[in-house]
Specification:
By secondary structure, the protein is an alpha+beta fold. About 30% of the residues lie in helices and about 30% in strands. The chain folds into 2 domains: about 110 residues, no CATH class; about 40 residues. Strands 3, 4, 5, 6 and 7 form a 5-stranded antiparallel sheet that branches.
Length: about 150
């Protein structure tokens, strides 16, 4: 399942307590108990309804969606920007993914994944630095625009 499909699968209203349930391990045919990560908002009903490979089980928190009109191909289109979810893949072949990690969506279908707390802090610091630079550019824009308009009025 792609990250986009995972976003679409985010259908459980803001879960707060971990849910415990079981799925049938597709390899062994035996029930496998599982407890969701705290805050998991995924609807796992399809996981327990049919035999499932353990590596296809994960938990995910709901992202706060914010959109901006991004001009792609000459036409502005509302796209999700800068949303973050916390994800865990308890049966992943990647050991680091077995612990909760952050996934940052920069803009629709463009992600920075597998961020441990230090990596996520690095991303936040880069964004903070970029915001400081944008604020400086904003001040310059105000000055340049005022000077431009003053020349046009003269």
């Amino acid at each position: 399942m792609t990250v986009t499909e995972e976003c679409a699968a985010d259908t459980v209203p803001q879960a707060t307590l971990p849910r415990t349930w079981a799925f049938i391990d597709r390899r062994t045919g035996k029930p496998a108990p599982y407890t969701c990560m705290a805050g998991c908002t995924l609807d796992h009903s399809s996981d327990w309804a049919t035999p499932t490979f353990p590596e296809d089980i994960w938990c995910w928190t709901r992202a706060e969606h914010m959109t901006l009109p991004v001009n792609k191909d000459g036409q502005p289109e509302e796209m999700r920007v800068l949303s973050t979810v916390i994800k865990v893949e308890p049966f992943s072949s990647k050991i680091a993914a077995r612990l909760p990690y952050a996934v940052v969506q920069l803009v629709d279908d463009q992600f920075i994944e597998d961020l441990d707390p230090d990596g996520y802090e690095t991303v936040i610091n880069v964004f903070a630095e970029r915001l400081d630079q944008m604020r400086t550019t904003h001040r310059k824009l105000i000055e340049i625009r005022a000077a431009y308009m003053a020349r046009s009025a003269a």
